[in-house]
Automatic annotation (TrEMBL):
GO terms for cellular component: plasma membrane. It holds the Pfam family ABC_tran. It comes from the Bacteria. GO terms for molecular function: ATP binding; ATP hydrolysis activity. CDD domains: ABC_Mj1267_LivG_branched (cd03219). InterPro entries: AAA+_ATPase, ABC_AA/LPS_Transport, ABC_transporter-like_ATP-bd, ABC_transptr_urea_ATP-bd_UrtD, P-loop_NTPase. Residues 5-246 form the ABC transporter domain. It comes from Litoreibacter ascidiaceicola. Keywords: ATP-binding, Nucleotide-binding, Transport. This is Urea transport system ATP-binding protein.
């Protein structure tokens, strides 16, 4: 398997406490991966490292075919390199419609003047329709985003990230606060997205992880405790002891 992201021997300490401890793992170019683990396992810190928010003390974070180091790269440059991150709370422009939000996400030139004089091209409008179909909001293009449900806002934000066509999408607890029906639809959106890019989902909800039907990495104490299918890792006694059995 070729590698899109390689994290090797990464360590991060906060005031002497090792939040990430010699962490190593790899993600392939079009794969879905779930990352699970108890509170404080280092899941958020791992995403902070990959997106350039936190700089590791040791180790390598290599990206793409050319194995470019992401360490020391600015957060904006990492986004441009093709890494998108979805935080837990949706951050759509509430007063704008779904279409306007998606158009804004597509825009390459975001300078103030460019925004003022922007008229969407036919190609941009068609692209937005396609994105809206991918996130199940094709019938909601003209709806004001702030009036939609929590789940719909989350899908819109996923669509806004997909508009940037990232090669890796990091998604933090997408199922939180969703109804069972919304969770199911979220699974479908992410599974579809992972056909053409890597998608890494951090999630506590085991039913959600099961439906993603993918390789699972269990973090504990800032390192990989177990890795494999969900059935494989949930049978692991260490995983039961530190996470599932609690
Ligand atoms: N900026 C920081 N300063 C000090 N300690 C930190 C900082 N960021 C994270 N930590 C600590 O590092 C450890 C790992 O935290 P992290 O948030 O990555 O865990 P997590 O697996 O995402 O947990 P959760 O499931 O609760 O979100 C925790 O013990 C946390 O308190």
């Amino acid at each position: 398997m070729s590698t899109l992201l390689e994290v090797s021997g990464v360590t991060v300490s906060f005031d002497g406490f090792r939040a990430i401890n010699n962490l190593s793992f790899q993600i392939g170019p079009a794969e879905m991966r779930a990352v699970i683990g108890p509170n404080g396992a280092g899941k958020t810190t791992f995403m902070d490292i990959v997106t350039g928010k936190t700089r590791p003390d040791e180790g390598h974070v290599l990206w793409g075919e050319k194995s470019i180091s992401l360490i020391g790269m600015s957060e904006a440059k990492i986004v441009r390199a093709g890494i998108g991150r979805k935080f837990q709370k949706p951050t759509v422009f509430e007063e704008q419609t779904v279409q306007e939000n998606l158009l804004m996400a597509l825009r390459k030139d975001r300078g103030p003047l460019a925004v003022l004089i922007y008229k969407p091209s036919k190609a941009d409008l068609e692209h937005v329709v396609k994105l809206a179909e991918e996130i199940g909001l094709a019938d909601a293009l003209l709806r004001i985003s702030g009036e939609m449900s929590h789940g719909q806002k989350q899908w819109l934000e996923i669509g806004m990230l997909l508009a940037q066509d990232p090669r890796l999408l990091l998604v933090d607890e997408p199922a939180a606060g969703m109804t069972p029906a919304e969770r199911e639809k979220t699974t479908a959106i992410l599974v579809e997205a992972a056909k053409t890019r890597a998608v890494v989902v951090v999630e506590h909800d085991m039913e959600f992880v099961r439906r993603l039907n993918c390789k699972v990495t269990v973090l504990h104490g800032g390192a990989v405790l177990a890795e494999g299918s969900l059935d494989h890792v949930t049978k692991n006694q260490d995983v039961i002891d530190v996470y599932l059995g609690r």
